[in-house]
Amino acid sequence: PVVHVTGHEIAPNFPLLNGGAASGFEIAPSLPTGLGIDPATGTITGTPGAAAPPTNYTITASFPTTPDQPASLDLSVLASSTLEGYSTSPASYIAGVTIAPNAPEVLGATPDSFAVSPPLPVGLGFDPLTGIITGTPTTATAAADYTVTATFSGGPDSTFDLSLEVVEFS
What we know:
The protein has strands at about 1-5, 25-30, 35, 45, 50-60, 70-80, 80-85, 90-95, 105, 115, 125, 135, 140-150, 160-165. By secondary structure, it is mainly β. It has a 4-stranded mixed β-sheet, with no helix packed on it. The protein has a 4-stranded mixed β-sheet with strand order 8-14-13-10, with no helix packed on it. It has a two-stranded antiparallel ribbon with strand order 3-4.
């Protein structure tokens, strides 16, 4: 699925063709406000102007000597960028064992920065530019919620409560 954010210009979305150059492209239903398809190249470009729910679009490429070829594209537009969660959530780590990096899952634009509150258990690091959690926790801690905030230019900020615990090796 392709997810865009209102007010943020999208990277051009080019078609992948097998079997030669197409003579034209059509899409149904119509793309969300602010997005368009070039009928000659099939490239989708623009800046979404409003939120749109996930929709399956059919793009049809026309060829001069072969039947038309349809393809599907699942696309939605968010009103704002969102911090959806973490690659490991909830997170349970073992004291004294280095963790695999735990990365944020963001829909939409790339955040400008991240913050976490309260501070993570001793031995765990938090990168304020990427939001990735790394390190080796040193002591057991009870499960607790850590609020991670992603800050986006043009706002609004988005938060996610990450449940995290550190257990003793048994």
